[in-house]
Design goal:
Shape: globular
Largest sheet: 10 strands, mixed
CATH architecture: Alpha-Beta Complex
Order of helices and strands: EHEEHEHEHEEHEHEEEEHEEH
CATH topology: Spore Coat Polysaccharide Biosynthesis Protein SpsA, Chain A
Structural class: alpha/beta
Distance between the termini: 18 Å
Strand content: 25-35%
Helix content: 25-40%
Number of strands: 14
Oligomer: single chain
Number of helices: 8
Number of domains: 1
Amino acid sequence: MKAMILAAGLGTRLRPLTNTTPKPLLPVAGTPLIVWNLLLLKRHGFQDVIINLHHLGSMIEQALGDGSRYGLRIVYSYEPVILGTGGGLKQAEPYFSGEPVLVLNGDTLVEIDLGALWTFHMQRQAAATLVLRKDPEAVRWGLVEMDSDHRIVRITGRGKSESGPVQPRMFAGIHILNPRLLRDVPQGRESSIIDAYVAAIQRDEAVLGYDHQGYWSDVGTPEHYAQAERDASAGLITLAARQ
């Protein structure tokens, strides 16, 4: 099982903290955000991890090295120009060897059973599986509509024009995709992987939603960052549970 952590972003909403430290290295309870995710991957049996880099990327590579200290094998995909989620995955595609890949954001804190997610994706033979959450502000985050069979029918209004009853969700930024969906993603240009998912939905491929009810934080703003520290102090998320 292979995983990719997206860590190329500028972290603009957390400036000035991210002017000198890449967002994935900002500490929560004394441990960098990206290390929380590495330990989560290790806990659920992942060994090979690709990390894309841009803003202050050399600091991330210096901090993590080859991953051996975490029992992982890490390789890096450098982006001289930020390529977004689509372009970043397209550039890293050779590392996937045609196998499904789990994608995480390097600045998100989450407690989720990645093994159960992987099993769901493989048993349903999905083209892609997106981790979704119920959220009263799902529209603000980007509305994802899922039917009763867990098939996603629309993402931010794009997808199938007609459907039966749907359940509103937000995308938690964790997904598994079959690399064949990268076929039409432009090489070397910035793009969003959501475009590939919408195209797959329109082709009636199985793009599925996996409901997540556990802890999740995007740590994207100073307020969310402060809350994540409080959550760690309160034991809502712990490193010990990830080892």
